[in-house]
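Internal ticket #5521
Category: modeling
Description: The requester needs a full-assembly model to guide mutagenesis choices. All entity lines are attached below as received. Residue total reported by intake: 1044.
Assigned to: D.W.
Attached entities:
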Amino acid sequence: MVELTDRLVIAGEALSSRLILGTGGASSLAALEAAITASATAMVTVALRRVDAAAGQPGGLIDLIDRCGVRVLPNTAGCYTAAEAVKVAHLAREAFATNWVKLEVIGDDRTLLPDAVELVRAAEQLVDDGFVVLPYTTDDPVLARRLADLGCAAVMPAGAPIGSGLGITNPHHIRLIRQVVDVPVILDAGIGTASDAALAMELGCDAVLLATAVTRAQDPTAMAHAMRHAVTAGRLAAGAGRIPRRFHALASTPDEGRPDL
Amino acid sequence: MVELTDRLVIAGEALSSRLILGTGGASSLAALEAAITASATAMVTVALRRVDAAAGQPGGLIDLIDRCGVRVLPNTAGCYTAAEAVKVAHLAREAFATNWVKLEVIGDDRTLLPDAVELVRAAEQLVDDGFVVLPYTTDDPVLARRLADLGCAAVMPAGAPIGSGLGITNPHHIRLIRQVVDVPVILDAGIGTASDAALAMELGCDAVLLATAVTRAQDPTAMAHAMRHAVTAGRLAAGAGRIPRRFHALASTPDEGRPDL
Amino acid sequence: MVELTDRLVIAGEALSSRLILGTGGASSLAALEAAITASATAMVTVALRRVDAAAGQPGGLIDLIDRCGVRVLPNTAGCYTAAEAVKVAHLAREAFATNWVKLEVIGDDRTLLPDAVELVRAAEQLVDDGFVVLPYTTDDPVLARRLADLGCAAVMPAGAPIGSGLGITNPHHIRLIRQVVDVPVILDAGIGTASDAALAMELGCDAVLLATAVTRAQDPTAMAHAMRHAVTAGRLAAGAGRIPRRFHALASTPDEGRPDL
Amino acid sequence: MVELTDRLVIAGEALSSRLILGTGGASSLAALEAAITASATAMVTVALRRVDAAAGQPGGLIDLIDRCGVRVLPNTAGCYTAAEAVKVAHLAREAFATNWVKLEVIGDDRTLLPDAVELVRAAEQLVDDGFVVLPYTTDDPVLARRLADLGCAAVMPAGAPIGSGLGITNPHHIRLIRQVVDVPVILDAGIGTASDAALAMELGCDAVLLATAVTRAQDPTAMAHAMRHAVTAGRLAAGAGRIPRRFHALASTPDEGRPDL
């Protein structure tokens, strides 16, 4: 089956996949490894908090990621203020030896949606501190442009609350974001199933980040396969120039040449 | 990339693909051949009317289909009465040497939606005449069950009017159909882009039939690739046990083990 | 508050309301009477089966309807074949002294959706027998036109299964029906809340029939009031020429005259 | 027709209508006056820029508003920074002799969506300055709660871009906002037709603000009537306890007592 050949490029680095996988929610390291392999992802996100003593051991999470040969994107999950997120980002830079960070500054623990004001503050600081900042943001096009303008390497709008599986609750806003920023747009959070991921790409996103949809599916490996195909399908479709929507039908077979009965 | 291994079985015959391609609307035979190859379809539909003198010549449509090694599913496109459709089906059986027929009995030329009453009449006759009947039907679950009960080998509900690209206008009805028939359900008509095809499979369809979405896309080959991935994605997702939809968020990274800052 | 002045006309008879109320599901006759009054309906449907000995007594259902001064539209709820529905219609004509009938021929007891084939058969018979036939039909535009063409006085497409509260699952089909029939289109079944009823009218329906949404609401009288307003709102909006949908914004306040700060 | 009796209360003031009307886009003062009357609104918004010499003259906009007996809510339309919006708010306080202000700080001129960061800044300043601040905000629940927490008297989330007529593009976010703030939630912007306004109220909004949907409709007076009914319908429905959504049908008429045929 034909694969995508155009690469996702973030901050000058090309990635071989447009699917980014979160590592949270997996039932075991073995399940996670199977999902990573099946998804063919080239980058996984890891929360600093998950990197405790066990994670660093042989056979731990870090080991697994190394073995899979994928890039690590540390995230600041669980931070509720700019100050906290900036601190975690710096710790992560040491721990993972990478200046890339998925910046999360959460507004409340029920929706886990970003706090716009604190997010901008943290992003400004981290850009100043030399990080490659990929902010998890709301689907607000004005905020997305502000983040891009201040130097973020990508913007990662939420399709819906993390883990909700609601898909993309506001496709119109994702389209608007695509129009107003020049950096990659990565749909992050809300994806429930394969068609959601395909839709994200068709709306113009450059990549999709998901975790729960795969790690908590009944068969994570099968869903990881599905998501790989879905992202490829959506990307190809986005470039193929779809037919316009029509209120009435358009016969695929013209009326001429109809046999005389 | 992992492929589907479970086969679509219609009337006891296994097909190697869950994507059925219509041949109408292609700009040229070369474009059609490229799309067939890219889609990896195992069966194409052909309207009898398209099989004129030219089609039978070397280098014509029949030749192309033979060369691609795909099965032909003749259709009765353009028929407005049961009598007409039955006649065309018989002619097609002779012309294509197959007793399979995609039965279309159209109600009007603006929507090209099926005429329920004439469709049932034609299906009854053709089943009696020994055909393997695959009726293009409305998304009405009661009608679908009636068609299955009278011996149709599959049911092919419309997602939306032919060529409209509106996708699946009533997912609820497709789900209902899936519950009430035991034969394969093939989403037929309305598909505009890849996510529509993935959704069809997630709703429980066994296959997707589409023509215009590929043949009239700006880049039919790319869209055929996209559709192939989309059908695979949707099928895998349908079997993977998706996460439930939740109103609020569910953290992928648990709160325990958060670093003490 | 301004009321609608254009009347719903069915078979030459003008009705003072575009809301038709079903009487099933009410917790008591008193609750039903309050709902009828609050809705300002001019016609209620009654299943023949409900008209048992008790219904005919003083203080029974028939008495209540007389007292409310509304028209009765008998229905053939619970009939699964044309023969059965025709019989019930004739019994109802005797019992209620009206040749109007809401024709229901149900396909199965889980969806309670109409059976297209039996419905057409029953409608033909009842039109021949001199009834004013209002068929509860699917949202299939071809079937709706067939029913109108054979002499039905209105068509009553389902928005969604009876009692489901799903609203209008396929607005596109309701629009298509509005285009292809000249008789009144009455949205029947599926309505859950006020905005559903308003939408039905905006899609071009001439009236809305609902029962469960009012009779099983926690406060049936309040919901009846809501539905009255909703139908009026939708009807007025349908005639007011709504603004077009735009992808981007359109400032309501022009930029000229902006104060110089 | 029954009217709502529960009042919208903002900052301790009760208003007799839950529909707030913008004055922009009207073709003439006469058209505007007719719309105000038909809508039965109790408060209209006016952009300071519209209050030029002409507006203050006898027969001008101010005169019209006085004559209609409705409250004025000055807005800061057209402001792109906090500083600008604060200045305009102060000018408006002088001009209109009211400390109420609808605070708009726009992020860009294509979407006219709010700029979260500047909006918060301006809101903080104006609350400090003793204004009753009603901010036009995004549909972001975290931002809405922040605005409520800093002392805004209401929050006014956008349903869709101003003048777009797209309705409520993200009902899920409106529900979330309703859950997390204690001040009135007023749906502001995006409304295209009556069912949109009814839906806003059903989602839990306390009021709806709209302009273009009425002023630019083909018949603004009829649409104003429609909106009045729609807001009432939605409010009543929200309080009436709607039936739950069900996948299958629920017969309104029980099977018992079915006549024996």
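Resolution: model delivered.
Comment from assignee: The two ends of chain B are 43 Å apart (CA to CA).
Ticket closed.
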